Structures are given as structure tokens and as C-alpha cells.
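User: Predict the full complex structure for these chains.
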Amino acid sequence: MKDKLVYLCIGIALTVLFFVFNEDIYEAMYYSVAFNNGLHNYDVYTPITIITILMAWGGAAVYYYAINSVRWDRWWHWLVMLAVVVLLTPIICYIVNVRMFNENGISMAAEAASFEFFNLVVTAVLFVIASFSMRWWSTNCRHTPIPQ
Amino acid sequence: MRLFLFAIGGTGSRVLKSLIMLSAAGVRPVDENGRPVPNVEIVPVIIDPHKSNEDLKRTEALLTTYRSLRERLYGNAVNADGFFATRFVTLKEIMSEGTIQLNDTFIFNLGAVEREKFRDFIGYDTMNEANQALTSLLFADYQLENKMNIGFVGSPNIGSVALNEIKDSDEFKAFANVFNQGDRIFFISSIFGGTGAAGFPIMVKNIRQAKNLEINNRDVLRKAPIGGLTVLPYFNIEHNDDHRIDKADFIVKTQSALYYYKDTMTGANDSNLNAIFYVGDQEVSKPYAYDPGEHGQRNRAHLVEMVGALAPLKFAGMPLNRLSDPDGFPLQTSAFEFALDKDERDINFLTLRATTRRLVYDPMVRFHLLFLYLRTGFRDQVGQGFTEDAPKIKSDFLNSQFYRTLTDDFMRAYVDWLVEMHDNNRSVSLFSLGETDMNRAINAVGTRKSLLGRKNVDNNVFKAEMNRLSRDARYSEHTVEFKLLDLFNRAAQRIVNERYEGIN
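Assistant: Here is the predicted structure of the two-chain assembly.
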């Protein structure tokens, strides 16, 4: 029980760190002066970060506690969920990003798409962190993707 | 409490086999309030000179298998809950080191009885002419020529002489020495054959007259609570011109023996037995092959044997004050009979009366579901879910001695037992044989109705329930064998209650 809480705390801590240092992390992964200035100036980083966190943790929660089925307890089922979250999150973030830029008269669709490609990696990492933070209490999927 | 269970003759072995099956399912002695009686340990002792009897061999093999499985599950613990809960031990296992040397077997060594012709056994050739004439009056020629390693071929007059030697045997002395205050004795025998009909009263007489024997525990032994299952005629045999065993004699033999039992064991003035259980069936069974013993005697299992197996459990659960007076002497013999709820030829759980059903339904259903699960689902689930919790059940478990003994040996015998009872008359059809769909596995009992049809029971339902139980339980101190069977038992308890129609 203690070990499991440690995993959860570590996962939350890493996620909080990502939230706090979101700009630095994103810019380390993808940097284009005009585009990143736009994200910063119009405060697009925050909603993108929140969406990414919510999608990763929400997706993991759905898998481990809503689906939570013996028919969906193999590693490839988890991988399907990861793929869904990893594909869906950048699309939503892209739409939010483009819409916020448009409201401010900026059009950087190509850069936004490239940025979201890297956000895809961030989402995958966060989904893994969320999975290993919360899976221990799942009835049927706690050993997915890797047995305890 | 130790229950010394003497299974005498072929019927004794067959009833004992049913008891093993019920015990494997987790049927246990319960007290009058339906609570399991703690600390019960059964010491089965098979008494039968007919060592090549197939029923005896099957029962002994099953006992050995049961013992090895149980040991792996619970070690030497007397109390357990679930499958294979009741502990069966040999006399050798419980006796202290001493001068008596016994084999570690459930079979009573009858010494010379098993080797000699009856005429040699009684020294016929050394008798004077008058004694030979008297002996010839009491015993037919074929009885004198009977080689007793095939039993007493339906002749209790042989058995009553030959088995009288038992009291001098090492096994009897060992039994007498380990018998303690609080232990009980139970006999299983038929009344219409040779070995059981003769052996039962002789054993009771020897125990009640223990004060005359050169053994320890004489006082404790002669006051021991003794119960007996007397199996009345219940099976038919094929016609044969050799009339050593004849179905026409069954009723006459039974009547004579009952009178004798009344005079010596159960009568108002001769209550040497504390309790006696009678079971039989006038419904004619499918005829068994005529075999006085030469061909091994392998008879199909029968409802009467399964019902009979409940008798020692009932006896073990009876309060002492219903058996003995405050000084420990037997009260007037309590007699019990068995009745079905409906007089039908096809027996399912609904045909049994409520008291029997309450005792056997849940454990038997759980065990049958275990059988189906091990056969159809478990192998594919290794490496998933609950099997990954500590201690992990890995794929090599499927090749372990325990798993192979359970699935190859014990479960095969279980299926044979079910099939034999099903193919007999009455036909015991508690489960749909050959049906692997758990929803339809229990005859006359379906799954409960739900909003969308009926509730489902399959291997995934069990997996989910075991996943839940395993998450909340701690098995890391236990063996994988215990974990698997305990988890399944607990899962099945819930699933049977929640998903199958309630009949209790």
C-alpha cells in the first residue's frame, strides 16, 4: 500500500512540475520564435498544458477504473488506449491553439501542427506516468501494461 | 476430534469414495446450528481381504491423491475452509513412535485372512471327526474352499470367523492406542453381503469389550461414541448360474442380520451403538456384472453411496449429550433414515430435501465450477490479473505435480464418479455432464434473471471476481496452490449466491 502511494505521489509531483515548467519543457522540445512568443503572449501554454494533463490522466483513469475489464486487461489494450489519447490530445490542443491565435489575428497552422507533434510525445509520457501512478487500485487492469 | 472411519467391504470402499468427493468439494461435518465442527480429522481404515477389488483400489488411490493435494494446500493444519478442507490421515501418521510398525496406508492388513483358504484358516484338516462334521453343517463346501483373498463372497458366516482375528492385529492395537477421549468411531458396511455384514458387529463387539484386550485406553475405547452406516440392498447383479452371490438372498440376509444387530448392537437392552444410519433403495439399479471377486469387482457409483457418505459427517456433528450419558455410556441407539424430497428416478438438487441440499449444494456446485474453470479457462488466464499478484502463478505451475495431480488424477476420478452415478439407476444428474457452459452446468438450476435476459457466468466472471479478491487479500505468505483454490472458492461463493437461482 505504501509503495503504491509513493508511485501516486511521484506521478502527481512530476505532473505538477510539468505544469509549472510547461513553457520551458515545450520550448526545449520545439522552438520557433514567432510561434512560441505567440503561445506565451496570448497565454496558450496554460490551456494546452491543462488539456494535455487532463487527457493523459483522464484517459488513464478511464482505462483503469471505467473500462477496468477482464476483456481489456492485456498490454495491447492499454496500448490502444494510449494511442487514442495520444492522437486525440494533440488534435484538441491544435484546435484550441489555432482558435486562440485566430482570435488574435495570427495564423500559424503549420507551426501549430509541428508543435502538436511534440505535444504528442509529452502526452504519451504523461499517460505512462498517470498509468503507473494510479493503476495499483484497479480491479482488473492493475497488472497492465507490465505486471507489478 | 478424530473420527476413526472403518470402511468395511466393497460397499465401504464405495461409500468412502463418495465421502472423499464430498470432502474435496468442502462438505464438512456441521453441528446442529449448521456451523462447521472444528478440529475434525478423519482416519479412514479400509477393511477388506479382497485386495484386488477395483473399488478398493480406486478408493485407496483417491485417498492418497486427496491427502497429497490437501497437504500441499494446508500442510498439517487440521482446520481449513474450502476445497479439500477435511484432513484424512493414516493410522501410521498419527501414532507415536513405538514397537508397532505399520505401513503408511489406509488399508487394514488382515494378515493370514488374505492369504488362506477358509478351511486352512480354521484348521479344518486338523479337526477331529466330530468337529469337522459340525463345521460342515455350518459352512457349505464352496465356503470352506473359498480363498479369502477375494473376500467372503457374500458369506457373513465366514467373515464372522475370519474377522474375529482383527482384535489381535497390530492395526487394531495401534488404533486403540491413539484413540483419545473425545474421538469417535464410525463404521460403513453393507448388510446384505459378506465382509461388511460380518465385520461391523465384530468390530463393535471388540471395541465395547475392550476391557478384555491387552491394549491401552481400554476404558476410553469401550465408552467411545460409535456410529454405523448400514447399507441395505440397493444394487442389482446380473443373473448367473453360479449362485454364490444371488440377489434373491439379499433381503433374507438383510432381515437376519437386522435381527442380529438388534440383539447385539441396537436393541433397547443392547445399545452398543450410539447411532445407526440406514440407507438403501428399492428402486432396482442397473445390474452390475456378476463377480464374486475373481475379476476385481468394479461397480458403478450410486446415489445410495453418496447419501451414505453424509452419515459419518452427520455423526461427527452430533452433540455428545445426544449420544452418551454423563458417564460416557451409550444412550439408546439413535436411528436415522434418509428420504428424497421426491421419489424420482432422475436426481437433481431439487429432488433432495432441504436439509441435504443445504449441506451439499453450495460446496458441490463450487467444486464443479472449479472443475469447469480448470478445464476451460485457467490455462489461458495464467500471466494475467490475479495470477500476477504475489505469489505469482506462472506458466510452470501448469506442469507442477500439484496441478497435474489435481487435474489429471483427481478431476478424472471426479468425472468418473459423476458419470457412474449418472448412468446408474436412480440416475444422479446434479450437473449436466459434458456441458462446459457454466450457465447451464447445474441441472434444474439456471442463472438469475437480469434486466437484459439472464446473468452470465463464465471464466471471465470468475477472473474478475478473483482479481477483486486478490487485490484486497494477502496471499504472499501462502503457496500458489492455496491461493488459486482459496481465491476460486471465495469467488465461487459470491458468484453462486449472486448469479444462480437460489434453491436453499
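The radius of gyration of chain B is 24 Å.
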